[in-house]
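Researcher: Can you fold this with thymidine-5'-diphospho-beta-D-xylose in place?
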Amino acid sequence: MKNILITGGAGFIGSHVVRLFVNSYPDYHIYNLDVLTYAGNLENLKDIEDKPNYTFIKADICDHEKMESIFSDYNIDGVIHLAAESHVDRSIKDPFSFAKTNVLGTLNLLQAAKTYWGGDFENKLFYHVSTDEVYGTLGESGFFTENTAYDPHSPYSASKASSDHFVRSFYDTYNLPVVISNCSNNYGSHQFPEKLIPLFINNICNNKPLPVYGKGENVRDWLFVNDHARAIDVIFHKGKIGETYNIGGFNEWKNIDLIKVIIKTVDKLLGRPEGASEELITFVTDRAGHDYRYAIDSSKLKNELGWEPSLQFEEGIEKTVKWYLENKAWVDNVTSGNYLKYYQDMYGE
Ligand code: NAD
Ligand code: TDX
């Protein structure tokens, strides 16, 4: 495989995947296809934008004709599909854009791949990147495995579940070579500060309230984004066609405990007294349909493909907090909206 289309490569996880592939595989050409919504930021890829094996394509996965032409224009033989609307709170306010991008956009890409590959599937792969939220919610114990029945609750997870089903249907019906992974919550650099960890780091720095939904008792399983990118690399190259792989960190945290770790880390790095910023914690109305607990069993990925998370959480969170403190210009650009000009300046459009 030589020409790899990565969708959503200007976003949080996508930018880490693009960087990893561009740097690790000089023989591949990486096409980063992204429409640059509020979540897409080409500044995330400043360090690799001049590499000879990298091309950015501004396009919308919902544009059927465009998707068809991109496969033939660039002779695409592998897809890693990350483009999506990704924030649960936004899906509660506007479910339609989630159905459009996540479901219809994915279907467009599947159809374009099927048409262009025309039944000759040797050395072809459509890799769909999904979430553990499709499995719904857990009680106090147990884990999501690859055999857990789908039970999505938010419009976001319903749209991702639907896209997963479409991907499997193209394997079952047309033999399109697909693989799917379902990952837990990611954290790390370049994450849009609407998600819990970057939002809270930024608010602590600016002495703004930290809005904790409900009692802060919900549990999430956190994985360092570079470990997710490594898992995608392993699954892309070694995963079995038609299979699903769960990706997680075996790293569960109650929100309120995680928030205290973030506060402690930021306060330490800013030279504030330990726990000084705990006074910013503000309990607010719970998220509607808030899933209680996510926990991923990723032993299939470990046993069959040899992937394991590489970073301990304490180390990962310290690295992450340091990145946001040291990259204040990135945070300021994103919060002010200035980053949207980066594309214009780069490409003159
Ligand atoms: P993100 O919101 O940071 O990035 C999404 C990217 O997709 C953006 O660059 C955006 O411009 C692009 N995009 C959106 N609509 C598009 C369209 N119509 N056409 C082309 N590009 C479009 O998201 P993320 O957190 O990096 O998540 C990436 C993928 O991983 C998503 O599919 C998400 O469901 C999945 N995922 C995320 C997490 C997480 O913790 N963030 C965990 C598991 C799975
Ligand atoms: O202000 C907040 N206050 C708060 O208490 C925010 C933004 C979140 N929360 C809570 C809600 C969740 O229990 O923190 C937890 C994490 O919230 P998010 O960062 O919004 O992530 P989550 O809803 O768990 O979904 C994330 O992980 C799975 C990603 O956004 C998804 O794209 C991914 O699929």
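Model: Folded with thymidine-5'-diphospho-beta-D-xylose in place. The first strand starts at residue 3 and ends at 7.
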